[in-house]
Each structure stands twice: as structure tokens, then as C-alpha cells.
Write a structure and sequence with these properties.
The chain is an alpha+beta fold. The protein has 6 helices and 14 strands. Helices cover 25% and strands 22% of the residues.
Length: 288
């Protein structure tokens, strides 16, 4: 019974196969030629299959080989992009880490480390070789975003001025609010640092431009100024290499600042300061 079933299946398959062959004009001839034509038709089918196997579409695959030209173009474009990337500068862009900045000896002046709003990408310029659109600040040997006026700079930045003890070229730098970012010998005037030329000493009362170092003002504290605070002179310093004037010493207060030495509260001239040992080293200063 199974053999009959298989035979029936084979007959059905052959019938379907014959029905799918390409039509020929002679296939509609009378059935009495069926026996003689069967071999001929089979041969014709074979020839037709041969033509099909010889399908010229396969030859057209050689056109596919021409796609290697496209691959070559792609490689060329990639090389161009790579060269382009080497010339791209992000000097002046916001950043949170050195990895975000491109260029020779590139680094990020992070807001956390420098106070520069949203960070600022710089690149090295020892050979004055800043990329297009940037200018070399020789004092620090870094490239800054070039500008002709404040309108060319990001929000929170101004064009030119003074910073860290030196004049800034026509480059965008952080807009100042207090005097601490400007450093010794400078004060913040209209958002940019300017020379002060003052000569008052540590903890003397002051206005912006009267100190040998700089005038510590309420804006330097933001919203955290001590109650009753009044402006006094101080200096930026390095606690590891104390260069404060005689009668004062360097202590950490977010940045290194010079504070007057004291033995008791009575030695501190201002009503808002107190005699403390800021680092536990046994040396007390008048601080806030």
C-alpha cells in the first residue's frame, strides 16, 4: 500500500514538473503524436534547461566586481576623513575630561579643577602652531579660542584681558565674578581681569584695586560669605611652597590663600574671622 502511495506521489510530482516547463507552439499538437514527441519534447526541455543554465545573468555578476571601485572610493573617503579629523580642533569647546578634546597635547580645563564654566578644551602651542580659529597664549603655551570681541565667545566667557599674572591675547577666557580667579596683582572689572597696581598687605581693608595681592570680596564666596564680611587683601599661594609675606602663612581654603598668623582671637582684626589651626599643624591663623 505504501508503494502505491509513493508511486502516486512521484506521478504527481512529474506531472507538476511537466506543467512548469516553458510553453512551445507545438505542444498543443494532437495526442496521437504524444509517443513520438515525448522524447523530442524532453530533448527540447533539456535544451531549454541548458539555455537557462547558461543564464547570461550570471555574466552580469562581473558588474558586481565593479563594486570594488566603490570600495576603493570608500577607502579614499575614509582616508580623507581621517586626515580631516587630524585637523579638527575643539579648542574652546565645553568638556568634562581630556578625552573630549582633540589636538596636540589637548586637555580639558574642567570646571571642577579650574572653575571655567562647563570646562574648556585647550591644546598645546609650544611652537605657536594652534589650529585654525585658535590663538596661542604664550604664558601658558596653550591654544585658546580666537575672538575679536565678547560676542565671539561662549556664554560665560569674555575676549581677552589678564589672567594668572599675564596678558591674554585675543582669546576667549572665563568671565570673572570675584577676584580669586584673576590672581595676585589683578581684579575683576566688568567680567574680565585687569591690573590693580595696589600695595596694601594681607588682611588690610580694601576695594578692588588697592592690594599687592588681590582684594578678597564677597563675590569670591558666592552665597557662602561669612556674616558681616568686609573686603580684605590677601594673596594666592601654594601651601606646599609658602611664599606669603612675613606675619602670614598659606592655608588651603578651596585655593591657597595667605592668612595672618595669630595666637588668640584678639589677634584677629575683623569681627567675622577667628583664630584657628586650619590643617592641624599647630600653626594658627585668622580665617573665616
Amino acid at each position: 500500500m505504501r508503494n502505491w502511495f509513493l508511486l502516486g506521489f512521484l506521478v504527481l510530482a512529474v506531472g507538476l514538473g511537466c506543467g512548469s516547463r516553458p510553453p512551445h507552439g507545438d505542444d498543443d499538437d494532437d495526442d496521437d503524436n504524444a509517443d513520438g514527441d515525448a522524447d523530442s519534447d524532453a530533448d527540447s526541455d533539456s535544451d531549454a534547461d541548458t539555455d537557462t543554465d547558461a543564464d547570461t545573468d550570471m555574466d552580469a555578476d562581473t558588474d558586481m566586481d565593479a563594486d570594488t571601485d566603490m570600495d576603493a572610493d570608500t577607502d579614499a573617503d575614509t582616508d580623507t576623513d581621517a586626515d580631516g579629523d587630524a585637523d579638527v580642533s575643539t579648542v574652546g569647546d565645553a568638556c568634562v575630561s581630556d578625552n573630549a578634546c582633540e589636538g596636540t597635547d589637548a586637555e580639558c580645563l574642567t570646571e571642577a579643577d579650574t572653575g571655567w564654566q562647563d570646562g574648556y578644551c585647550v591644546a598645546g602651542c609650544a611652537a605657536d602652531d594652534c589650529p585654525e580659529g585658535a590663538v596661542c597664549w604664550d604664558d601658558l603655551e596653550v591654544c585658546l579660542d580666537a575672538c575679536n570681541g565678547d560676542g565671539d565667545c561662549r556664554s560665560g566667557y569674555v575676549c581677552g584681558g589678564y589672567l594668572f599674572g599675564g596678558a591674554i591675547p585675543d582669546g576667549c577666557v572665563m568671565e570673572c565674578e570675584g577676584n580669586i580667579p584673576c590672581g595676585n596683582g589683578y581684579f575683576c572689572d566688568g567680567g574680565r581681569c585687569q591690573p590693580s597696581g595696589g600695595n596694601r598687605g594681607v588682611w588690610e581693608a580694601c576695594t578692588d584695586d588697592e592690594c599687592e595681592g588681590f582684594c578678597l570680596v564677597e563675590a569670591d564666596f558666592g552665597a557662602a560669605a561669612p556674616d558681616g564680611f568686609t573686603s580684605v587683601c590677601t594673596e594666592r599661594c601654594d601651601p606646599a611652597n609658602d611664599t606669603c609675606p612675613a606675619g602670614s602663612r598659606c592655608a588651603e581654603a578651596g585655593v591657597g590663600l595667605c592668612f595672618p598668623e595669630c595666637d588668640s582671637e584678639g589677634d584677629c582684626p575683623a569681627a567675622w574671622d577667628t583664630c584657628v589651626d586650619p590643617d592641624g599643624g599647630g600653626q594658627t591663623v585668622c580665617a573665616f
